[in-house]
């Protein structure tokens, strides 16, 4: 059974198309105009062994919020569609990821009830880099939580993200993306002992 989903979202603020393969090899081929955000999605795919392709466009002349949050929404919709009724999966997952001086923790449950607890302990100072055009670019670190809020709202999961300790905002966010990827990978993989049943005493994930 192929667990693949494609979602397109077009609004007055963004145009996003993503195709997700839950049982991939970690390939990320997404046209993404925000350098650091591209780095995060690639890390997410690599460590979760998810294949993701598509393109992201948005009103970056306003700020990065709309595009990053809407990408989280679309990615969450892809997970929800690919998982269907969640039959046969482990449902929950947990991982602690060490990223140099940062130690990051993620726990997730695809139980049908969206909820985000996000304690990344970021400074709020944008990360500055050089764009492909040679001009200075930045990543709005306050959009980190916006992405995950969008994700949980449409994936219908609850997700806890915590920086246990750390110094670098880059390492904290990357460590949390990788921890989330591993936790989500563990939760969405097929449990051979479950024999295709829905992982809930109710018999349905709602």
The oligomeric status of these chains comes to: single chain
- Order the strands across the largest sheet as they lie in space: 1-2-4-3
Helix and strand run: EEEHEHEEEEEHEH
The total count of helices amounts to 4
**Cα-to-Cα separation, first versus last residue:** 23 Å
Query: What value does the average pLDDT take?
Result: 96
Query: Could you estimate the helical fraction of the residues in percent?
Result: 25-40%
Strand content: 25-35%
- In one word, what is the shape? globular
**What's the count of strands?**
10
Spans of at least 5 consecutive residues whose pLDDT stays below 50 are: none
How would you sum up the major sheet?
4 strands, mixed
| Radius of gyration (Å) | 16 Å
SSE class: alpha+beta
